[in-house]
Fold:
Amino acid sequence: MERKRNQRMYDAVEVGWVCVVQCELDAATALLDERYDDVSPEGGETYILGRMGRHNVAIAYPSAGSYGIAPIVRVATKIHQEFRNIRFCLLVGIAGGCPDPRDPAMDIRLGDVVVSEPKGNRGGVVQIDMGKNTDDGFRIFSHLNKPYQELLDAIPRLRNDHRNNHQRRKMDDYIDAVTRKSKEQPEPGYFAFPGREHDRLFQSDYPHPPKQASCANCDEKFVWRRDPPRKRSRVFYGTIGSANNVLRSAKERDRLRQEEGILCVEMEAAGMMDTLSCLVIRGISDYADSHKSKEWQPYAALAAAAYAKDLLTYIVKAPPARVHGKHCFLGTVPLDDVDRALAASPKAFPQDLAELVNIMSNRKLHFFEVRLPRFHEFLRKYKLSHTSHWVEADPNQIFDGFNITKATAVLDNPQKEPRERLRAARARAFLLSNRRGLVTIYRIHDTVLRMWNYVESG
Ligand SMILES: [Zn+2]
Structure:
């Protein structure tokens, strides 16, 4: 019942905002310009709904105490099912920084912000515990999806304003407004700037003594002197490392920075990026070493959320729905990527792709448990990047002349060849996506079908 009553509200949401730790949720909520009623769809998570600038946002978080990649995959999948008009997701929260205090370009400090940015064939996030051991050490192989193009287009404009026009750096105003307000709240000063004297980066070979709760007894002479002191958060763009385990090692942190160019490490982004394109925004709350503490977490979470809110002002409001009428998302793998994979494995690639077509067209295999993971496995194996584009499309072309009844009949007929069944599956998902959250299925089927047609056409 609740679902029906709220359908219009669900449909008005365009931006998914995912966080994990309580202070991240607090920061996101504090930055809402207007808060609507929370919703909890049947058998799902609770979402905080509200308006941030001109965008309606659904804030999602996994149930308390669940950390790491798996719960995030579930949240990311669910949010797209519940809110069919979500265009992209932001993963906003805290992380451990990987600074190099000797290099001004890498002098990441507590309260700074790191934004995932694709570079070369990397999607902006790498999973750091999925590599293989090789002779020259542990190499990272997993390159995850690139964020949604509309976000990538907005970032340069925001960077330009941040650099050249400080009055347009709205994130500072957002931070100030929340810290001011938090003085009067039950936990006064919760979001307050902790002060640079509490930002201590110890030399990498000086470990935190065991069984000491704080750094009160840690030796000041091993703290890096860093000039000039600054209060405002600096924003860094680059690669974020994501792992299932907490990193508490200065040596490993330094290695990740030197060898992989990683700016910060956290525990959720890989789960998000692997499911659907999203942008990861991280406030630096510690240095991923044995001295790490929670003191900076609320402020760092606030800085990341303020950046995200600033970024949203650069995104135009979308037309009300994405699959109604002639608009839809098309999934794409760049043809250059396909060509490269074909050249590298001329036999295996078409074989694996044919098998994937077979799997994707089998309606009996559950999509989110079997077909989607196999799709991502395929992308990873051949290092294919996957994005989506919002297009105006001719419905006849999309539907292939199918209606739901006809598509279902073809899909369930084992006599039909896999490609025909996949076309039926794609059309069916598209037609049903007006009623249910099947857009993801549609996009994935569309991507596979396009690749298959391309490979077949030689
Ligand atoms: Zn310490």
